[in-house]
Design goal:
Helices cover 75% and strands 0% of the residues.
C-alpha cells in the first residue's frame, strides 16, 4: 500500500478518472512512465520479502517450503496482473522473477 501511495503521489490519477472503470484504468496504466513501473517492481519484491519474513517467523516447520509456495502464489498473481493490465515488455520479463527471490530473501532474514 505504501508503494501504491508513492506512485499516486508521483503520478496522480487524472481528474475525473473512475477507478472502477477498468478500461479507463487500462488507458491510464498504458501512459505511465518507466519510473512508475519500477516502483511497482519494487513493491512486488518488498511484499514478497515481507511475506517470507512473516511466514518464516510464524511457521514451526517446513519454513522454506512455505516461502516457496508463497513466492509461487505471488508469481501467479503477478502473471495475472501482466495479463490484465498493459505493461512495457521489459516489465513483463522481469516481474515474474522478483517474487521467489523476494520470498527466499525473507526466509533468510526471518531465520
Amino acid at each position: 500500500a505504501l508503494f501504491q501511495y508513492i506512485n499516486y503521489l508521483l503520478f496522480p490519477l487524472p481528474d475525473g478518472l473512475d477507478r472502477a472503470d477498468f478500461e479507463a484504468m487500462k488507458t491510464y496504466a498504458e501512459q505511465l512512465p518507466v519510473q512508475a513501473h519500477v516502483v511497482v517492481l519494487a513493491a512486488h519484491f518488498v511484499a514478497a520479502t515481507g511475506a517470507g519474513i512473516v511466514a518464516t517467523r510464524v511457521s514451526r516447520s517446513y519454513r522454506l517450503t512455505i516461502c516457496i509456495l508463497l513466492g509461487t502464489f505471488f508469481t501467479i498473481m503477478g502473471l495475472v496482473n501482466i495479463l490484465q493490465f498493459p505493461h512495457p515488455d521489459w516489465f513483463n520479463l522481469i516481474d515474474p522473477f522478483v517474487h521467489l527471490p523476494g520470498c527466499y530473501l525473507g526466509y533468510r532474514l526471518g531465520r
